[in-house]
Amino acid sequence: MKSRGAFTKCDNGTWMIDTQVKVDNEWKHFKKKGFATLSAAQSAFDTERELFIKKHSKHHEVMLFDDLLDKYREMRRVVVDESTLVCDQSVYNVYLLPYFSKKLIKDCLNRDAINEWYHNLVDTPKYSNNKKSKVITRMKDLLKFAYMHEYIDAPTYQSCDVCLYQVKYKKRPDTERVVWSKEEETDFFDAVDGDKHDYLMFRLFFTCSPRLGEFLGLTGDSFDYKKKKLTIKQQVKNVVGKGAVLTDKLKTHESYRTIVLDRELADMLNEYINTFSIKADDFIFHSGKNKKQPVSRNTFRRKLYHYCELAGVRKINPHASRHISACKLARVATSAELIEAAARRLGHSPEMFLNTYARHVDDEKENELLRRLDA
Which residues of the chain are under the pLDDT cut of 50? Predict the structure, then answer.
């Protein structure tokens, strides 16, 4: 073996880094084998040295919980949307920071501290079990982030993680999916017929069956009269502290789509846009005189429930319109091409369409079979 400063040639002809490195004011032996040539070892020296220092440094011993949380939030900002970040912030402010703020993470992220925090959380009756479970999930994710980025070691991570058990909570019971009959749908629109604005709004909504946020996010440039198409490219989301926010982030990749309108509905919508001078960036269905403000979810729901009562039909929520439309499409989508077209119209994958809606149609066929047997 021969040496050249920090580099040593091994008996097998490869080179290794073999030197002393100062870590937290202490000298440590730094060794790294397996470089084919001296130049390769020299090129990798700085990178390997930094990794060695990071791995053996006790930087977490002087790091505050607040600083760790800031780094975690930076990561979350890349992978989740704004509304989720706002919800996360409420978790930090209410459940984490009052307990851990201004403390070193070595004093926070240890078995005793995490165990005490956990029992304080689950024993507080004013917090719902649903909320407790969500907070625990966020804490477990934060611990994993701290371990993956080497702010805590594996034994610390494991000893903290085993203290955190999910709290059982009663999930909302499944509700019956109401699918209107053709007569109920006719009665509903007969009740709306006296108001041209509401008639167009609900006719467009039930025909296209978008998600409510997608529908409220329709603007003047979403409609192409020449092609008789409506483009779904954005949605309105309610963000805590900010109200209704327009965003171009939709639920899935399939959610970005165009929907073909029949000529009669396209003519009605075009006339409405021209009559009210809806510009490209104006909301098609807006709140009063302010065209830059979409009609609110509460207003839309209130109108829907009002006309349901007026028509004497079963009350449905806005999302049920997608189910009604999907079941109608499933009855006539008898080929792979039609199934794909139906799924695309709803902003679903064909697999999602078949698994969710086609089965419901099958149930209806079975019920019809039983009725014929009883006849």
Answer: 174
